[in-house]
Amino acid sequence: MATPKSESRNTLDDTYAKLQQSSGAKMALLVMDGLGDLATRDQSYLTPLEAARTPNLDALSKDSAQGRMIPVAPGITPGSGPGHLALFGYDPLEYEVGRGVIEALGLGATLKGGDVAVRGNFCSLDAKGLVTDRRAGRIPTEKCEELCAILSKQITAVGDTQVIIQPGKEHRFVILFRGEGLEGPLSDTDPGREGQPIAAATPSNPKSAKQKKAASVIADFYKQALPLLKNQHPANGFLLRGIAHQPAIPTFQERYGLRAAALAVYPMYKGLSQLVGMTKIEGPQTIAEQFQRYLELYDDFDFFFIHFKYTDKAGEDGNFEAKVRAIEDFDAALPILLQKKPDVIAITGDHSTPCAIKGHSWHPQPVLLHSAFSGWDKLDRFTETGANLGSLGIFEAKYLIRHMQAHGKMFAKFGA
Amino acid sequence: MATPKSESRNTLDDTYAKLQQSSGAKMALLVMDGLGDLATRDQSYLTPLEAARTPNLDALSKDSAQGRMIPVAPGITPGSGPGHLALFGYDPLEYEVGRGVIEALGLGATLKGGDVAVRGNFCSLDAKGLVTDRRAGRIPTEKCEELCAILSKQITAVGDTQVIIQPGKEHRFVILFRGEGLEGPLSDTDPGREGQPIAAATPSNPKSAKQKKAASVIADFYKQALPLLKNQHPANGFLLRGIAHQPAIPTFQERYGLRAAALAVYPMYKGLSQLVGMTKIEGPQTIAEQFQRYLELYDDFDFFFIHFKYTDKAGEDGNFEAKVRAIEDFDAALPILLQKKPDVIAITGDHSTPCAIKGHSWHPQPVLLHSAFSGWDKLDRFTETGANLGSLGIFEAKYLIRHMQAHGKMFAKFGA
Question: To the nearest whole angstrom, how far is the Cα of A66 from the nearest Cα of chain B?
Answer without folding.
Answer: 13
